[in-house]
Amino acid sequence: MMTCEAAHEWRELLLAVKRRGVDVLPELAVADGALAFSKAAGEVWPTTRDPLGKSRQPKAKRALQASCLRKPSSLSE
After folding, report:
1. Is the pTM of this model over 0.85?
2. Most buried by CB count within 10 Å: which residue of 33, 35, 57, 70?
3. Is residue 11 assigned to a domain?
4. Residue 20 lies in a domain
5. Which of 10, 12, 9, 16 minimizes the C-alpha distance to 29?
6. From CA 77, how far away is CA 71, in angstroms rounded?
7. How far is CA 70 from the centre of its chain?
8. What is the pLDDT of residues 9-67, one digit of tens each?
9. 50: closest CA among 26, 15, 67?
């Protein structure tokens, strides 16, 4: 399981899906704020819309970075 996701990991996964024969281009890609997924999806499927958009990405990126640096509650006890 990836704790802090990277665009290259998502890209590898999406390209593997394409290699396996899934050739339908999605019209819309929705993530939970995962900028890495949005970046990879834009590279693999350049015509796919990303509703997060560029204007909201800096705030989402800061929030994700903060959560990646935070220790899980089970480890902090």
Report:
1. no
2. 35
3. yes
4. no
5. 10
6. 10
7. 19
8. 999 999 999 999 988 888 877 777 667 888 888 889 888 877 666 666 677 677 777 77
9. 26
